[in-house]
């Protein structure tokens, strides 16, 4: 006839499966939202400094307008990482999850002001979602 123990096991299996499916569905959404919006500890920062081609800057401390307008601008236009150096601190500079090399190449070797979200990890500082501040 009717076995209540078997029904309890079936209901328990369904409940566990439904909970697991719900958790697996919600988890990627929470991770995506955190990635998109970042954490509350991220700070907006305005930095004034020299735009540099990060490859040449890190490799052989290439700075200045002479290098910037010859080699540096070419490296940035061809997709090399771009940065800004301010008071001895170098920052990797990116747009909204993408490079902004085309906008910054013309400023290589020159001082400008940028504004964006500061992020640091493992000794690397980055300013993302960068806007060039017009003064």
Question: What features would you describe in this structure?
Answer:
The chain has 135 residues and is of the alpha+beta class. The protein has helices spanning 4-37, 54-60, 65-77, 101-104; strands spanning 43-53, 82-86, 89-93, 111-121, 124-133.
Count of discrete domains: 2
Number of beta-strand segments: 5
Straight-line distance between termini: 85 Å
- Major β-sheet annotation: 5 strands, mixed, barrel
In the sheet with the most strands, the strands line up as 1-2-3-5-4
Poorly predicted runs are none
Number of helices: 4
Helical residues, percent: 40-55%
Topology:
Elements: H1 4-37, E1 43-53, H2 54-60, H3 65-77, E2 82-86, E3 89-93, H4 101-104, E4 111-121, E5 124-133
Parallel strand pairs: 3-5
Antiparallel strand pairs: 1-2, 1-4, 2-3, 4-5
Summarize the structure.
By secondary structure, the chain is α+β, with helices and mostly antiparallel strands. It is 43% helix and 31% strand.
Core attributes:
single chain, 135 residues, OB fold (Dihydrolipoamide Acetyltransferase, E2P), 2 domains, five-stranded mixed β-barrel, 5 strands, elongated
